[in-house]
Design a protein that fits this description.
single chain; about 50 residues; 3 helices; about 70% helix
Amino acid sequence: LQERLDAIEAVVLKEALLRHRWNKTHAAKELGLSRGGLRQKLLRFGLEEK
């Protein structure tokens, strides 16, 4: 179950970033996250370089 939830979360993150042309501040605001919180999730899912 956790693997499926992680996959869904990664898709939601990527879709928000695409909607905002990879503007992390705007995507984080849409998702109700801090910019730092978004960055941590992106690192977790391999969507951002370290």
